[in-house]
Each structure stands twice: as C-alpha cells, then as structure tokens.
Amino acid sequence: MPQPPALQLADLSDAGRGLTLPVDIVLPGAGSARLVSLLRVLPGQRYVGRAIWHVGTGEPRVALAKLLVGDKAARHFEREQTGARLLAEQGMMTPALLAANYVNGQGGWLLFEFLEDAESPAGCSEAMVSAIALLHAKGLWQEDLHPDNLLTQSGRLYFIDGGGVRAENPGEPLSSARALKNLGMFCAQWPIHADASLAAVLETYQKANPVSATRWSLSDLHRAVGQQRRLRLADWLKKIARECSAFCVRQNDASGLCVVRREEQEALDALLQNPDAHIAAGHIYKDGGTATVAKVNIAGRAVVVKRYNIKNFRHWLTRFWRKSRAWASWREGNRLLALGIATAKPLAILERRRFWLTGTAYLVTEYLEGEDLAARFAGKADQPELIAPEELAAIETLFTDLTRARVSHGDMKGHNLIWVSEDRRQRTEDRGQKTEDRGRWALIDLDAMRAHRFQATFRHAHRRDCERFLRDWRGSGLGKVIAEKVKE
User: How confident is the model over 471-483, as pLDDT tens digits?
Assistant: First the structure.
C-alpha cells in the first residue's frame, strides 16, 4: 500500500481527529518525522505521539513528537520549550529535548527523548510526593499537576509536559501558599477515600521540602485538597455534555441530545440509533410505568439500558420543562467516577426532544457482574458473623466517602448496592503471594442522587439515606453491626 504524501505542519490545522497513521510530517529545518501513534489530540491545535525521526543521512530515531498548529501555536511552543528548559536546568528527571523549531505560518514542533515501556505510576506513592516536593524545592510547579505528568521507567520517576511548568524563583523553594495549592491539586485527583492518607502525604512532603511546608498543618492540606477537588469536579461536569476529548456529542439541538464516551462511540452506534429495538430483544429487569430497564448484548458485551418513559400527557407536563432523570443519572454517575466511588460506568445518554421540550430519555451504563447487597445478606440478619469482614468494611468506606463528598443517594436500599469483586495480591508471611478476593459496593440507580452545597442540607439527606439503608435490618444483630458502620 503506497505511503500517503508527507504533510506540512499547517496541514494539521484541518486534520481534526481523523489523521490516518502512519503519516510523515515535514519538520522545517530538521528533516521529517513519521508519526506512528497518537497519545493526545486537540483537533486543530496539538498532536502528540510516537514518531520516527529522519534527519539527514543519520540513523532514524524514536522520539515523542509534539506538533503545535493553529492560532495558539506560538504561545504553546514557547511554553513547552521554556518548561523543558526549566526542568533540565534545575536537575529534574525529564525526557531530553532533542530538537525544536517554530515557523510563522506553519506552526511549531518539539521532539523529546521517548521513554520506552514507561507508564503512569500506580497509586499515590511516597516517591511521587517526594518528587513533587523536590520540584517545589527548586522553585517550580506545574499548573495542571496530575498523575499523567509523571512517568515511571525502571523505577525512576520523570516529569513530562513542560508546557505546564512555571517558575517562581528558580533554584529557591516555592512560596508556601503556592506549594500548598499545587500539592492540593495533585491529591484532589486521587479517589476521595485516599484523603485518609493525607497525614502520610504531609509527612513525606515536609521531609523532602521543609522550607515550603514549614507552617502547614494537616487541616491546611485537607482544605487545599477540598478546594481543588471542587474546582476540578465543576470543570469536569461541564464537559459531560459537550464535544471534547472524552465525549462525543452527536446531536444537541431542539430535537434531542446524544452524548457518548468517545471510546464507546463505534461500539454503541447501532444501539443509540434504535434503543427500543435493543431493549425489546434484551433481558428485561423492570418494565414499570416510569422506567424500563434491560440488559442488552452488544457484540458479545453486556450493557444496561434504562429508558425513562413518559406515561401520559399529564406525566409529560411534570417533566418537559426540566432536565430528564436520565440526565441526572448521567451527571451523578460521572461525578462518582471522578470521586473514585464505585458505580456502573455511564457510557451514553440519549434524550428525545420536541421543540427543546424533553420527552423519552435513555441511559446506557456498563453491566456489573455481582450480587446486590439485599441478596448477599439475605437470611443473615441474626448471624452477622456470616458476613465477610471486607464487605462490612466496604460499607463503612462507602458511607465515609459519600460524607466527604457531601453526596446523598436518595434511595439507599440494598438492591441499589452491587458487590464488585476485585482480585488483589497480598503477601504472606513466607513472602509468597496469594490471591485474596476483595471488592467494593457499587452504587446504581442514581436518579435521586444529589450533591449538597451546604453541610446542613447534606446531614438531613444523609440521615434519610442511613434510615433507609438500615430499615430492613432494624432490631437484628446485623442491623446493630451495620449501624456502627454507617454512623447514622
């Protein structure tokens, strides 16, 4: 198959997301690079990927290519180059900048050392916190500090994405306020249950950079994490109904709304074209007046489709002027995922409208294999010792996480919690390994879920959640055990 002709940088301005790979890109002043895979695309602005760099008669070299085009290219190029230089000058572990250039009317390009077999670190480790503390001790910070800005290769941590690197006074420790805000931004992106480890994070940071953290208390760090989490969550929830790297909006007008996760777009296309037919052919769990729920098979994969019905004209009059219940579930499912609270991952939402007025709506989520809590605890009301300790501990974790997030479920009954097992490795005393079956309680049926701005309204709603959750075990031995876990 013939190789397509090489593209000029300016050609990428109109390439969108449909760039066919591999493709040769002419690099003004430095030969060309064959782009073989893409790691990030911002259509018409930025293309980042693995490339084979050909220059002169030398041996081709693998590199990470950042190709910048469009109206903002000059500014982004300057930031990338300056950030890479700052990291290198301050002795931070970072991929070497091999070559770079900017040409007016074309765009900019930067080629970095490619870290083979590098991956994002798993979990918020002591090494990551120490690396961030060292970055701050050198007077640097990253404006959008997140786990993907750190890569590990052969046990060594590297800072990447120089475009977000800023300097206060290079070589001198960062000011206390800026360092605290930046560390809070990083910690805010881990699951909310990781807040329990912030004391260890603070201790590790203070050892590596005592100057910036001299006057910090644990409550200061908790406050910074909370503030940054609220900001990031608000920004994320704005994206769930608009075209972006995470979501594809297929229609958004007077006739309806369809949003699908970008990676699911092709797989769910047929389902979203005719959801009623797929529901009819699936396994019906519920077929009530206001909602129909079915397990549907899509190319050998099970998903759950929930249709929010309009029973009659009178019912429509109570619904048409507000967001659909499908939208509420879509929003809250994405909220829970961002907070690291287990739920069935929302894959797509479809709202049918007439002249902007909401009618029937559909929500597509992943299918969770597992028993609900009511079935799992059935017959054990007077024998709490038969309940696995990890399942009781997971109840406490779930309610603690919801309290930290100030989120109430609205229908917290046993049928709406699904046990999702996870296989984890746990070392034994003889340093061998065994597989231990653990898991989490995943929340489903999020129609009535609500995030509370004020603590007072949350406390009232949380109390109702606890009362509903305990209703089926009142007066039993199991009820007493669970009451301790949910802290009614």
Answer: 988 889 999 999 9
pLDDT of residue 209: 97
Helix (H/G/I), strand (E/B), else coil: 1: coil
Both tokens assigned to 52: 């084979």
Closest CA to 443 of 471, 467, 465: 465
Q: Please name the residue ranges forming H helices in 289-444.
A: 313-319, 325-339, 373-376, 389-405
Amino acid at 183: L
Q: H/E/C letters for each residue in 401-415?
A: HHHHHCEECCCCCHH
Residue 322, pLDDT score: 56
Q: Whose CA is closest to 124, among 208, 209, 190?
A: 190
Q: In what helix (H) or strand (E) does residue 157 lie, and over which residues does it extend?
A: strand 156-159
Q: Alpha-carbon distance 466 to 470, whole Å?
A: 6
Q: Own/partner pairs for 194-200, CB < 8 Å, 24+ apart? A: 194/124, 194/340, 195/222, 195/225, 195/404, 197/124, 198/222, 198/225, 200/126
Give the number of other Cβ atoms within 10 Å of residue 397's Cβ: 18
**How big is the chain by its Cα radius of gyration, in Å?**
26
| Each residue's pLDDT tens digit, 185-216 | 999 999 999 999 999 999 999 999 999 999 99
The 10s digit of each residue's pLDDT in 43-76 is: 989 999 999 998 776 789 999 999 999 999 999 9
Mean pLDDT of 309-331: 68
Contacts of 85 (CB under 8 A, 6+ apart): 97, 162
Nearest residue to 463 (alpha-carbon basis) of 422, 419, 402: 402
Tell me what the pLDDT averaged over the chain comes to.
Answer: 89
- Write the CA distances from 272 to 305, 366, 408, integer angstroms: 10, 14, 30
Contact 112, 98 (CB under 8 A): yes
Burial degree of 478 (CB within 10 A; 0-12, 13-18, 19+): buried
d(CA 358, CA 356): 6
How many Cα atoms within 13 Å fall on the side-chain side of residue 383? 8
- The yes-or-no verdict on residue 427 having pLDDT over 70 is no
Ranges 22-31, 135-144, 185-194, 223-232: which has the least confidence: 22-31
C-alpha 400, offset from chain centre: 20
Of 64, 62, 66, the C-alpha closest to 47 is 66
Phi, psi of 374 (to 5 degrees): -60, -45
Q: How many residues does the chain have?
A: 488
The reported pLDDT for the residue numbered 5 is: 79
Q: Is residue 33 packed enough to be buried (19+ CB in 10 Å), middle (13-18) or exposed (0-12)? A: buried
How much is the pTM? Answer: 0.87
